[in-house]
Each structure stands twice: as structure tokens, then as C-alpha cells.
Write a structure and sequence with these properties.
- The complex is a heterodimer of chains A (about 280) and B (about 300).
- In chain A, a hairpin with a 4-residue loop joins strand 1 and strand 2.
- In chain A, helix 5 crosses helix 6.
- The longest helix of chain A is centred in the first third of the chain and has 35 residues.
- Chain A has one domain: MetI-like (MetI-like fold, Orthogonal Bundle), CATH 1.10.3720.10.
- Helix content of chain A is about 75%, strand content about 0%.
- By secondary structure, chain A is mainly α.
- Chain A is built from 11 helices and 2 strands, in the order ααββααααααααα.
- Chain B is an all-alpha fold and about 300 residues long.
- Chain B is about 75% helix and about 0% strand.
- Chain B has a two-stranded antiparallel ribbon with strand order 1-2.
- The relative contact order of chain B is 0.13.
- The chains are: A mainly alpha (about 280), B mainly alpha (about 300).
- The interface between A and B is large, with 91 and 89 residues.
Chain lengths: ~280, ~300
């Protein structure tokens, strides 16, 4: 019948579109792995750059990204989880709560480079932190906040109300119920959200451009008030700012960044899968 | 003996009530912090950006020539550049995203879904600088040869990369919207004798319309604010895109301008303040887009229904 043939062609077209969407993703990963793998060796991962960053390793950039991610986590996790607990456990449906939600949606939509401007204006200049790990981490943390809040709130809301009621009926206070029952139950979802937020922060360049990132440093940072190199910024620098950079080093750097981010992504997925299967409710 | 125990219990109670009060207060304060941050961001953009409007004549600031070294701060080409790249990106991403969402939610067999969804999530996680690097080294040369244009670093290449960066947002929200359409709608369509294909396009997708609009808006917000990838592949020429073939020429966006120039300006100079002014403009644009998207989300929540 005619319309069934239309349907078959239509479905095939939808499948084709999906392939068009997915194929470039595989291409990006495939090309970067294929061309970058040759650059990866022990020296590349653990040595300082040499000869104008054209040789040696990218150790300081790797360390910088780890430090920044850690700094972001220290600030963003308590704020994010606390915000989520407030929204899910305490907030009533008032205009103020709606304003908070609106603020979160807007925080999520503010361009990353605008976060960079904000970090420059507030942390670097006004508070006098200078271009430093502190300023960069704070900027990244605020940018990460909406991701963590939304994911954590969703995880908290998924815990059945009965858990709270039972805790209260045993004489527990609201906070005891949250700390002993609700938070532990929601933990996997919260962790997934935290990882997803942090991996976004780890891969960002624009917010750290004016707040922390250094073109090249001869030594590792010593304190939170030091500048640092970072993987995403390093990739930007060596692929656009330094003429005559060997492609091998560029692809190698891209690969290290990609592996770092995608392995965090994988961890998040695994945590979610593992606990979803084990969940008893 | 008994009294002492109860006394101790009282003290413990008082202490725990105190800790509890403190903790709950902290949580409340943290809960409100999001509002504080939005306000703080806007205030600091204003603080550094407003002097631009004082120091630069409006005719200059909203003019068509951006040559900061000559004191010409016309932001119009930057705004037009951003719009050109964003609109083109959405024109590419909208059909791709909606069709993929329909495929994943309505048609795809389980195994295909298992492959597609994680891959799209992976795309969302790839840092923009990596996509920019890929775009620079591979997509731009490809665009140049295929379209036979002087340089592959063009608005079109930027739009192409941006389209893919907006896709995860568009697909996941459109998918949620399709998900929210009750099964009874589909059953009713099929029971009327419509094929699944007809039901999808005449019943399910129209019912999910507002969610799909939200998806596109948020995708657009994402695209207009994207910085690194755009800066690396669009060629960064601040000229007005006036003719149709501007799409295939270098262009410069607001985000790329800030990112590229802020590192080199003297703090407190006119140029510095103007860049913050561009930041204000960006903030307001994304704020408006997100406000519009949020209002559809809230409306849906309050009604608890589809639209």
C-alpha cells in the first residue's frame, strides 16, 4: 500500500539523519585518536615543554587542569548540593522559589566568555586575587553550579516521599532525615551530576582566558594565587598562536584533553547505570 | 541519676537543635545564592561596561566599523556576525535535531537507541576548543575545497560546528517533549487507521510543539554564546555581512571579539570598557532567550499538562 511505503521511506530517512548526526562525532574522536596517539608517550605526559612548547611534554597543562577542576569542585559541590537540598527539601512554591529557578536557568545560559568577563571584573580586579587559580576556580565553579543543582535536585526528588515520612515518624528531625536517609539514597545521581558539571568546567577555555590561564610557565604553580597553564587553553594557544607548531603535538594535546573529559563522562555513565540497576525502589 | 540523664539529653538536644538551625540557615542562604550570582554578574558587567557608553558616542558604538586601534567601536558588525552564524547554525541543527529526536523516541529499535544516546551525550561533553581545533584543521579545508571559496574559515564553517554543538541540547529537550506526549494520543492516531508515520507527524509532533520550540530556543542560546570553536573557525574579520555570500566569508562574532581582544587591551582603556559593553549585550540577549524558554517550561509545569 502506498502510505506504508511512505512510512518505510520516511523511517529510513530518519535513520539516515541520525547517522548524519552521529558520524561526525565518531569522526572527531577517531581522527584525534588516530593522529594524536603517536605523540603520546611518558615524556609527553610528564615533562615540561621545551623549545617554545614544540617539544617535551604538556605536564604543567595537565597539572593545571587537574588543579582547576579540584578548585572548582571544592567550591561548586557544597554550593550546588546545598542549593539542590534547599530546592527539593525546603523550598515551597513561592515567587521567591520561582525566582531561584529562573536564576538557575539563566546561569546555565550565560555564555562562557561572559563568565570570563565577570571573573575578571569581580575576582581578578575588584577582590584583587589577580589572574590566579583562585579566581579561575571561583569563576568555573559559578559556571558549573546550575548543572550540579539541576542534577542533584532531580536525584533528591526521585527519592520517594515515604522515606522522609518514615524518618520523621521515628522521631528524626527534618535535617536528620535528609542527612541519614535522603542524601545517601540520592548520592549516585548527585555524583553523576557533579562529574558532568566538573567535566564541563575542565574543558572550558573562555572562562579561564582572563582569570587564570598562562601562555607558558617555566614552573608549576605553588599557591592558589599563582597562574597556571591548562589543557584547553594550551590547545588553543598551540593551534592558533604559535606558528610552526608540529601537528603531532597539537593532536596529542587534543587527545589528552579528550581522554580526560571522556573518561569522566564514562565514570558518570557507569555510576548512573550501576546504581539504577541496584536501586530497590 | 534519672535527672542527670535527662539533663544530658536536654543539653544534647539543645546542641543538636542549634546545629540543625545553623545547617538549615546555611542551606537556605546557599539556596538563594543563585539569584545573588546572576545579580552579581550583571552588576560587574555594568560596572566595567557602562563607561563605554559614556566615553564612546552612540553613533560610533552602534556604527558599522570596528577598528579599536583607530577609536572606531562599531559593534554592529559583531552583532550581525553573531546573528548570521547563530541563525545559520539553527537552520542546520533544527531539522537534524528534531528528526533525530523523533527517530530515537518513536522509531529506533532498542539497539540503535543504545548507540545513539550515549554518542550524543559524548558530543555534549567534547570541549569546544577540541571541536574548534578539529574544525580548523579538517572541516575548514574541506569546506574550502567543496564550496570552492578562498578560505574555509568562514561564517558557514562556524555555523556547521555550532550546529553540532547545539544538537545535544536540542535533541535531549525535544526528546523529553515527545516523551511527555501521552501514549493514548499515539493509540488514538493508530486506531483511526493512520500509519505510525502519519501519527508521528500529525499527532505526536504537533502535541510536543511547545517543547520543541523550547529546545530550539535553548539551542540558540547555546550557539550565540559559544566562543572558542567559533573564534577558531570563523576567520575573525569584523566586517558587515551585507550580501548573501557573506555566509562564505570570514566573519567575527561578539564572543570571539571579547575572547580575542580582552587579553591585549589595557585595563581601564576605552577598548576595555567597550568589550565589557559587548558582554552586557551578550548577557541581555541570552537572558532574554532563556527567559522566553523558561516561561514555556514554567507554563508547562503549572498546568501539569502538555503545553
Amino acid at each position: 500500500m502506498h502510505r506504508h511505503r511512505v512510512q518505510r521511506v520516511g523511517f529510513a530517512l530518519l535513520g539516515l539523519v541520525s547517522v548524519i548526526v552521529v558520524a561526525p562525532i565518531l569522526a572527531v574522536i577517531g581522527v584525534i585518536v588516530a593522529r594524536g596517539i603517536g605523540a603520546i608517550n611518558w615524556e609527553f605526559i610528564t615533562a615540561m615543554p621545551r623549545e617554545g612548547m614544540k617539544a617535551g611534554g604538556i605536564f604543567p597543562a595537565i597539572v593545571g587542569t587537574l588543579v582547576l577542576t579540584l578548585g572548582t569542585a571544592v567550591v561548586a559541590i557544597p554550593l550546588g548540593v546545598g542549593g539542590a537540598v534547599y530546592l527539593s527539601e525546603y523550598a515551597r512554591d513561592t515567587w521567591l522559589t520561582r525566582a531561584i529557578r529562573l536564576a538557575i536557568i539563566n546561569l546555565a545560559g550565560i555564555p562562557s566568555v561572559v563568565y570570563g568577563l565577570f571573573g575578571l571584573g569581580l575576582f581578578v580586579l575588584f577582590l584583587g586575587f589577580g589572574t590566579s587559580i583562585l579566581a579561575g576556580s571561583l569563576t568555573l565553579a559559578i559556571m558549573t553550579l546550575p548543572t550540579i543543582i539541576s542534577a542533584a535536585e532531580e536525584a533528591l526528588r526521585a527519592v520517594p516521599t515515604e522515606f522522609r515520612t518514615v524518618s520523621a515518624s521515628l522521631g528524626g528531625t527534618r535535617w536528620q532525615g535528609i542527612r541519614r536517609i535522603v542524601l545517601p539514597q540520592a548520592l549516585p545521581g548527585i555524583i553523576t551530576g557533579i562529574i558532568l558539571g566538573l567535566l564541563r568546567a575542565a574543558g572550558e577555555t573562555a572562562p579561564i582566558l582572563f582569570t587564570v590561564a598562562a601562555f607558558y610557565l617555566a614552573s608549576l604553580p605553588h599557591s592558589p594565587f599563582d597562574q597556571t597553564m591548562a589543557l584547553p587553553y594550551h590547545l588553543y594557544v598551540i593551534s592558533t598562536q604559535v606558528p610552526g607548531m608540529p601537528l603531532r603535538v597539537q593532536y596529542g594535546t587534543a587527545l589528552v584533553l579528550l581522554v580526560f573529559v571522556l573518561s569522566l563522562n564514562l565514570v558518570a555513565t557507569l555510576v548512573r547505570r550501576y546504581y539504577r540497576r541496584r536501586r530497590e525502589w | 541519676m534519672e535527672r542527670r540523664v535527662s539533663n544530658r539529653g536536654d543539653t544534647a538536644n539543645r546542641i543538636s537543635r542549634w546545629t540543625e538551625f545553623t545547617i538549615e540557615t546555611v542551606i537556605r542562604v546557599v539556596g538563594f545564592s543563585s539569584i545573588g550570582f546572576v545579580v552579581l554578574i550583571f552588576l560587574f558587567l555594568l560596572r566595567e561596561g557602562v563607561p563605554a557608553f559614556v566615553r564612546v558616542q552612540p553613533g560610533n558604538l552602534f556604527g558599522v566599523r570596528w577598528y579599536p586601534t583607530f577609536g572606531l567601536f562599531g559593534t554592529l558588525p559583531l552583532l550581525m556576525g553573531s546573528l548570521l552564524v547563530t541563525v545559520t547554525a539553527i537552520l542546520i541543527a533544527l531539522p537534524l535535531g528534531v528528526l533525530t529526536a523523533v527517530f530515537v523516541r518513536e522509531v529506533a529499535p532498542g539497539w540503535a537507541r543504545e548507540i545513539l544516546k550515549p554518542l550524543i551525550e559524548v558530543l555534549a561533553g567534547i570541549p569546544s576548543v577540541v571541536l574548534g581545533f578539529f574544525g580548523m584543521t579538517l572541516v575548514a579545508p574541506l569546506v574550502r575545497t567543496v564550496l570552492n571559496i578562498p578560505t574555509g574559515l568562514s561564517a558557514f564553517t562556524g555555523a556547521l560546528i555550532l550546529a553540532y554543538m547545539a544538537l545535544p541540547t536540542i535533541i535531549s529537550i525535544a526528546e523529553d517533549a515527545l516523551d511527555a506526549v501521552p501514549k493514548s494520543y499515539r493509540d488514538a492516531g493508530l486506531a483511526m487507521g493512520a500509519t505510525q508515520w502519519q501519527t508521528i507527524w500529525r499527532v505526536v509532533v504537533p502535541a510536543a510543539r511547545s517543547g520543541i520550540v523550547t529546545a530550539v530556543m535553548l539551542g540558540m542560546g547555546r550557539a550565540i554564546g559559544e566562543t572558542m570553536a567559533v573564534m577558531m573557525v570563523t576567520g575573525n574579520a569584523a566586517r558587515m555581512p551585507t550580501t548573501l555570500d557573506s555566509l562564505f566569508r570570514p566573519v567575527r562574532t561578539m564572543t570571539a571579539t571579547i575572547a580575542a581582544e580582552m587579553g591585549e587591551v589595557a585595563q581601564g582603556s576605552t577598548h576595555y570598557h567597550v568589550l565589557f559593553g559587548v558582554g552586557i549585550l551578550l548577557f541581555l540577549i541570552t537572558f532574554a532567550i532563556n527567559l522566553a524558554a523558561a516561561s514555556t517550561i514554567f507554563k508547562k509545569r503549572r498546568k501539569g499538562g502538555l503545553r
